[in-house]
Design brief:
- The protein is mainly α.
- Helices cover about 75% and strands about 0% of the residues.
- Helix 4 packs across helix 8, helix 9 packs antiparallel against helix 10 and helix 13 runs antiparallel to helix 14.
Amino acid sequence: MSFFKKLKPQGSSITIFVPYFWLSLFFLLPLILIFVISLTQTVDLQQPPYSPIITSTEDTVRINLFFGNYLALAEDQLYILSIVNSVKIATVSTFFCLLIGFPMAYGIVRSTPTYRNTLLMMIILPFWTSFLIRVYAWIGILGKENGLLNGLLLWLGIIDKPLDIIYSDLAVYIGIVYSYLPFMILPLYATLEKLDNTLLEAAADLGSKPANTFFTITVPLTMPGIIAGCLLVFIPAVGEFVIPELLGDASSPLIGQQVRNVFSYDWPMASTLAMMVLLVLVVPIFIFQYLQNKQTVAK
């Protein structure tokens, strides 16, 4: 009876089991399937359109691992350029999200409770509209001939001819910064709200200048929010597909577009690209974990 009693799930075990089961079913299992497909070859006119990973005869069982996709990826300049472009655009977009989001989060924290709730609602409000419609709206704003921005600048006399913003990297930057800015502001707001203002007052009383106080007290104490916000923007921006497709330059493809294009005719290669994207994203996640552990030890 004691043996079965040990096997009986306790409350804490069930609580831990649920997230592990969820992550295993919807993250780990698909990831393993993608990795397995990346080690196969394309086979036309078959379902599924890739070679079997295990073949067997009466006497033997053979595991077929094909690493040619990874070698082809390393040799193809288009794929390498797509990954580099994706990382560059994600990095620059994350920097501008932080540059714009930090003062916005700081301003919301410093406002009165009545205005604070209203401002937070305005940050969340765009999520009530479809993501696709919001990106399409930027085509109307940034358009060359009939765009609202060019029309306004021409009407004010600031420019003589329409600017070429749409279908360029600049338009992709604008679209990503606009779309992911709330993901930067919300974790920054959560961290800034917990900031002990007596430390700032003590620094001011001791003669510290505002800029010095900001970089020596505010930034270090809000570093968890900064890192969390940067990851929440950087990770989806690397694999972004919709914004570059609608606003970007077709001659400068990103890795999300490459995965979409290759998937239509080569599942193993598309899976290899997806694994490479994951590898690019694992690096900042490990850095985040390292910084968090370091901060926990310091406390």
